[in-house]
Design goal:
The complex is a heterotrimer of chains A (341), B (413) and C (180).
Chain A lengths: L2 H9 L2 H32 L17 H11 L10 H16 L21 H9 L2 H12 L2 H32 L4 H7 L6 H4 L1 H14 L11 H4 L9 H25 L12 H27 L8 H29 L3
Helix pairs in contact in A: 2-12, 2-13, 3-12, 4-6, 4-12, 6-7, 7-10, 7-14, 10-12, 10-14, 12-13
Chain B lengths: L27 E6 L10 E7 L2 E8 L7 H6 L6 H6 L6 H16 L5 H29 L3 H22 L8 E2 L2 E2 L7 H24 L2 H7 L7 H7 L4 H5 L6 H4 L11 E5 L4 H28 L8 H4 L4 H10 L16 E9 L2 E9 L7 E5 L1 H5 L2 H4 L8 H9 L3 H5 L1
Antiparallel strand pairs in B: 1-2, 2-3, 4-5, 7-8, 8-9
Helix pairs in contact in B: 3-4, 4-5, 4-11, 4-16, 5-6, 6-11, 11-16
Chain C lengths: L3 E5 L6 H20 L11 E3 L9 E3 L9 H5 L5 E9 L6 E9 L9 H5 L5 E3 L17 H4 L6 H5 L1 E8 L3 E6 L5
Parallel strand pairs in C: 2-7
Antiparallel strand pairs in C: 3-6, 4-5, 7-8
Classes of the chains: A mainly alpha (341), B alpha+beta (413), C alpha+beta (180).
């Protein structure tokens, strides 16, 4: 076994290149597309044109790249009064943690392409998803700024509201199928027995939960500009601010992937075959397309809604959405009892 | 020397030279919102919060104070009109009209009937544009970006009309002593009627996306309630006062120009909360559209008679009359620049989009005002922040701020 | 008929109207998403051809000027100043010092008082306002410069459009063709 062969083996080891491709390149492209789409869709609803002048031929598609370049050349200001270690590390850790849950998501049913094969992948994903918001609070706390702390506290309140909703409603997908392995969940949905259709309540609550979790409208409360400037990110500048903002969209992407495998049938209606293209590339593209459509719906809501007040959002979450999620869970139990899957 | 602001639990001057100190409660958090804050405007609101509840608040005005009253004393009478417009440039005609009328009272001239109608025309166009401007700001305060863009886009219709009429988008300098400066151009009333019908259609769109939007209703209902009694005591004015159930509108109680000849309603809401103030403004836009329709009809029916007072127009040279016949443009008499106004005092008020504005004008017979005192509506509404904010949540601040439609440059003068 | 007060009340809302409100809001959002009805002006590729009577830059017709100084006297921003220059009368051939108006666009607020007060119509507005000067000195005019309209670069590079009023779309952008 030559050195080159070993090197190739390391590079072609699924967890590694999946980390690079799935962890860095795909999210970047998806986030850039979604940000562009979000600006364009808001512009359409608002009778504007939106980004255009950077690349008029593709309707301003490169605007986000231009923004990214601008962010990267901007000075990163670290105020004297902040807790430096936490201030710098919090957004980075949040960024990593917000993309980390993808390791648990199999994009195909062929085990050789799994990042990490496991039997409780859905639960692992849900567990990992809930980690990153803590570092947002850390970022707010370390900033030593009143608006940051208020923003961080709002995020803390929101965590209590949305975590349970998302976990209960996504877990109800596993309950209905009788397995927490995502592959089993997707397989059970074969033949248009999509959980999103069979258990729309759980899907709806999960949808609203994701809106709450990723501060999408109408729940854009922690970063609400007109009260707390930029929430926990008030003191950040340049690329650090970009990372913070990007992390929120990565989180939304991960949630969308989870929703599309748990409720929208993952790679279905495609059946993965052998080899790289049929066994991995096409199913993962199907999942990403589904996730992107979900994200586009999240983005569209920005143009229609304002934001709720914090206490009203919590009210909605605890008094309406949580009972609904519980009902969805019960519905899943009933479906499992009736043996639909 | 004492503290210039007070906390909820009193202030305690430590006697440090050159330093304001105040003690605030143990669990109270002091947040300065503004003057450089995305949700403050050119003013500063200081709030003391306990948890999420505002326990005390104070408004710190004056960041855009431009000494307008004093500046006007140093320049001739007519030059104060473009100056006073700068208080609220999107409401320029309403803001300057009482000044013009006060000086007219001193000069003892009356504008011709057609000029009065034209003044009302521009006043109502300005009023609608100013309401739409307020809606836009309000929408973005609540995070509703569509409600930010739509009213600003539709305001363009009215700004375009005003530009067609006066030649300038915002600072029209339209009413002058004795009349107005331009007559309506050909085809203006047809465009105006189209704009009116368009606006009615758009108000329905606004209702769907903003006014009846459940998120917005949740944010606004029961928030920032100003009871009728408190509203009168605080002396707030304009749509905010009427939304609290007080029947007071200068156009109704002290009619000026031709408002008493027009058929329109003064809507009054009882609730006094932020939502009622939104509906109040929507209803007032509808009434302004009604007024505009009547003005358009009147202008169509009546022929082009001079729009400058007889006192100034009878001495006008033939060229002036030719220009008016051909272009509809009134050339100002050369005496306007150095005109002396007879000694006396005059007080006039008018209803702007934000409420009652009043001018006290005193002349000592010179070619400049001796004193002009302006009482602007936003300055009167500012007190709301002190007395209505406490007890609300931090997130109610933008809702109340936007619903009051507070405009710092107008308040600070 | 004088205005009358009319008391109104906020209509209450229940669960149904909440549901209806959500549906209505999303429906109208989707409607505009598919049919945006834009009226954005892509400046400077397009520019508005303003109507006659727009109060833009001011130009002096020297032959009509009678040196009365009314314009400088009425200027609220003191942008119009009078300068003393020799003037040779073509009939008599005598040279005398006369006062001529010049304008400083750093100060001008485009109120149009000077144009309206001029007894001989020696001043007129050009219907545009989008000119960029690199320095503050360039915005000041002397007597020669004041007689010519400022150079309007937008006109050379852009497409003229005009907004017409429409009942359904508010302002509709129409390309101006066949003029000049």
């Amino acid at each position: 076994m030559g050195a080159l062969e070993i090197l190739w083996k390391i590079i072609s080891w699924p967890p590694l290149w999946q980390l690079i491709v799935l962890g860095l390149i795909v999210p970047l492209l998806v986030v850039i597309y979604i940000l562009w789409f979000e600006r364009k869709t808001a512009a359409r609803v608002q009778r504007r044109i939106g980004p255009l002048h950077v690349s008029p031929k593709i309707a301003g598609g490169l605007q986000l790249l231009a923004d990214l370049i601008r962010y990267s050349f901007q000075e990163i200001i670290i105020p004297k009064t902040v807790d430096k270690a936490a201030f710098i590390s919090a957004p980075l850790i949040a960024l990593i943690l917000s993309i980390l849950p993808v390791v648990g998501v199999p994009f195909t049913d062929k085990p050789e392409w799994f990042p990490i094969p496991m039997d409780y992948s859905l639960l692992v994903v849900l567990a990992l998803v809930t980690l990153s918001p803590i570092f947002l609070i850390v970022a707010g706390w370390a900033s030593n700024n009143k608006f940051s702390i208020i923003g961080g506290m709002r995020e803390a309140f929101m965590i209590t509201a949305y975590e349970l909703i998302i976990i209960v409603s996504v877990a109800s997908a596993g309950v209905a199928v009788g397995s927490y392995n995502i592959v089993d969940i997707v397989h059970a949905q074969t033949g248009w027995k999509l959980l999103g259709l069979l258990n729309p309540i759980a899907f709806f609550t999960a949808f609203v939960g994701v809106l709450l979790a990723t501060s999408g409208f109408p729940f854009e409360i922690p970063e609400s500009e007109h009260e707390v400037v930029a929430g926990a990110f008030t003191e950040y500048s340049g690329l650090m601010y970009g990372i913070n903002m990007g992390a929120a969209y990565l989180k939304r992407m991960v949630y969308s992937i989870v929703l599309s495998v748990a409720f929208l049938g993952g790679w279905l209606p495609y059946t993965p075959g052998e080899g790289f293209v049929s066994g991995y590339l096409i199913p993962s593209i199907v999942i990403m397309v589904k996730a992107t459509i979900l994200m586009m719906i999240f983005s569209f809501l920005r143009a229609v809604y304002g934001r709720y007040r914090l206490d009203q959002a919590l009210d909605l979450a605890w008094k309406i959405m949580f009972p609904l999620a519980a009902i969805g869970f019960g519905l899943s139990l009933a479906e499992a009892y009736l043996g639909i899957f | 020397m004492s503290g210039f602001v007070r906390g909820s639990v009193g202030y305690n001057d430590l006697g440090l030279p050159g330093m304001w100190t105040r003690r605030i409660g143990k669990d109270v958090y002091e947040v300065f919102i503004g003057p450089q804050h995305p949700g403050s405007g050119h003013t500063r609101i200081i709030i003391w919060v306990d948890g999420d509840i505002i326990v005390d608040s104070e408004i710190d005005m004056g960041y855009v104070h431009r000494t307008m009253e004093k500046l006007s004393e140093g320049r001739q009478w007519i030059k104060a009109i473009p100056l006073f417009e700068r208080m609220a440039i999107h409401d320029a005609c309403n803001v300057t009209l009482p000044y013009v009328r006060a000086v007219e009272k001193l000069l003892d001239v009356e504008p011709p009937e057609r000029a009065s109608y034209l003044r009302v025309l521009l006043c109502e166009i300005n009023r609608i544009a100013a309401f739409l401007y307020g809606f836009g700001i309000f929408g973005v305060f609540l995070g509703h970006s569509t409600m930010y863009m739509w009213p600003f886009g539709d305001r363009e219709v009215w700004v375009e009309l005003a530009e067609w009429l006066t030649g300038a988008r915002l600072t029209h300098t339209y009413p002058v002593f004795g009349g107005v400066r331009r007559d309506v151009p050909a085809g203006f009333t047809d465009a105006l009627r189209k704009a009116i019908r368009y606006m009615r259609r758009r108000l329905e769109d606004y209702r769907k996306i903003f006014v009846d939007n459940p998120v917005i209703r949740s944010r606004l209902e029961g928030v920032g309630v100003i009871p009728k009694k408190i509203a009168v005591e605080l002396g707030i004015t304009g749509p905010n006062l009427r939304a609290s159930g007080v029947e007071y509108d200068v156009r109704m109680n002290h009619p000026y120009e031709v408002y008493d000849r027009l058929d329109f309603e003064i809507p009054v809401f009882e609730e006094g909360d932020a939502y009622a103030r939104v509906l109040q403004r929507v209803e007032e836009i509808k009434q302004s559209l009604r007024i505009l329709e009547q003005v358009a009809d009147w202008l169509d029916k009546h022929e082009k008679t001079p729009i400058m007072a007889e006192k100034f127009w009878k001495t006008a040279p033939p060229l002036y009359k030719k220009v008016f016949q051909e272009q509809g443009r009134v050339k100002l008499p050369a005496t306007f620049a150095i005109m002396k106004v007879p000694a006396g005092k005059a007080y006039e008020r008018g209803e702007t989009a934000r409420g009652e504005i009043s001018y006290y004008v005193e002349s000592n017979g010179a070619n400049k005002p001796y004193r002009v005192r302006i009482h602007s509506p936003s300055a009167r509404n500012a007190i709301v922040f002190k007395y209505i904010l406490p007890g609300h949540r931090v997130m109610d601040l933008p809702a109340i701020y936007g619903s009051i439609d507070y405009f710092p440059p107008e308040a600070d003068r | 008929m004088p205005p009358q007060p009319v008391h109104k009340r906020v209509h209450p809302r229940g669960v149904f109207s909440r549901f209806k409100g959500n549906i209505e809001a999303i429906t109208i959002g989707v409607k505009f998403f598919f049919n945006p009805e834009r009226s954005t002006l892509i400046y400077p590729k397009e520019y508005i051809k303003l109507k006659d009577g727009y109060r833009g830059f001011i130009v002096l017709i020297k032959d009509k000027c009678i040196n009365c100084g009314s314009c400088a006297r009425i200027c609220p921003a003191a942008a119009m100043k009078l300068i003393r220059l020799p003037f040779t009368d073509p009939k008599t051939g005598r040279t005398r010092m006369k006062l001529w108006p010049v304008i400083n666009y750093n100060r001008c607020i485009f109120c149009g008082y000077c144009v309206d007060v001029c007894p001989t119509e020696a001043l007129y507005h050009v219907p545009y306002h989008d000119v960029v000067w690199d320095t503050m000195e360039e915005a000041e005019t002397d007597l020669e410069k004041f007689q010519k309209p400022p150079e309007w670069k937008t006109e050379k590079e852009g497409i003229p459009v005009r907004y017409v009023f429409d009942e359904k779309k508010g302002l509709v952008k129409v390309r101006v063709e066949g003029e000049e």
